[in-house]
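Box 3.1 — From sequence to structure: Succinate--CoA ligase [ADP-forming] subunit beta
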Amino acid sequence: MNIHEHQAKALLKEYGAPVAAGVAIFSADEAEAAAKSLPGPLYVVKSQIHAGGRGKGKFKELGPDAKGGVRLAKSVEDVVKNAKEMLGNTLVTKQTGEAGKQVNRLYIEDGADIARELYCSLLVDRATSKVSFVVSTEGGMDIEAVAHDTPEKIITVGIDPVAGVTAADIAKINSALKLDGTAAVDGEHLFPILYKAFTEKDMSLLEVNPLIVMENGRLRVLDAKVSFDNNASFRHEELKPLRDLSEEDAKEIEASKYDLAYVALDGNIGCMVNGAGLAMSTMDIIKLYGAEPANFLDVGGGASKEKVTAAFKIITADPAVKGILVNIFGGIMRCDVIAEGVIAAVKEVGLKVPLVVRLEGTNVREGKAILDNSGLDVISADDLDDAAQKIVAAVAKAA
Ligand code: ADP
Ligand code: MG
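Predicted structure (token representation):
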């Protein structure tokens, strides 16, 4: 689950991180009061969407010469003017894709005097099995370019899970970021705070870009992006209200209601698979035969008929889907349950695209018989290779 910048900052503030004063607003009417509650004279009006690159982003409706999604304002009137211009419009950034994202809320924040913009993130480094700080002196808006052109400027410091953030770790991070004096003392406080927030809240990413050194030498978290690990959501009731459904893919929201591991993708072959590994291989083999998967979907081990039906409906509801590949290895999952789920779903929503089904494992004969006797136009396949070739060919033929 992702959250907005203003929510991430509020969370980090609870842990004691230095963030600016700010107010989130949902309509332009609130802009004046929000700005007046801040010290001024410099304000920043920040689009709140679940994507980065807002500063360099462009509003679709406003043309190429209009300012981006993060704007400095020098008076209360200027804040109001910008808020009116930005709210409700569609911001396109490097991370949103061409469609962009509608800006439904803004964060009006106190402006900072920036001396240096740094990069600081925490993530789970799977290679070392550690939560790691990834830092760079080259913070700001183009960290992807830094990673690409000058990777030596990005430094990783892995944290021992037993020891936590040690004095030696802090010294390494401070030195990598060239922090000294007051800023280094601020770093001693900040880096353990970020680590504590990351681990206690089961984050999968905490990105502060930029972390700034202000003209007065102090550190401040100027931007914050947080993703939480959904596998740990059961122990974080307190985070549930932070979810913003308007930022999520409608198909993924529907899938989450049924506890389905579903990720929407750009291709045209819908996949229903059990097991994450098999789902990945299925996507790979579709690509191998020249097509693209429309989704990742793992229906899980002991999925019920209702769950399978829901999954199939989500796939067929996607207008981009031009063919469906059901690939089930029945271990715990039973092939007959899958077959019944598919049929129940087709009865409800119809089947307008080719469907290839590959069943193997527990109750495979019963499953195949159910499909054969259903009168459905199912193309059956024997193995993964056969299945992938058949669905790619069927989609090509139908096009
Ligand atoms: P994004 O990463 O989505 O472009 P940021 O929050 O990082 O958005 O803002 C982009 C840039 O705007 C920052 O790199 C910084 O230069 C400037 N900026 C953001 N917030 C403030 C602020 N409160 N005061 C002054 N400048 C800011
Ligand atoms: Mg940023």
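Summary of the box: The chain has a mean pLDDT of 94.
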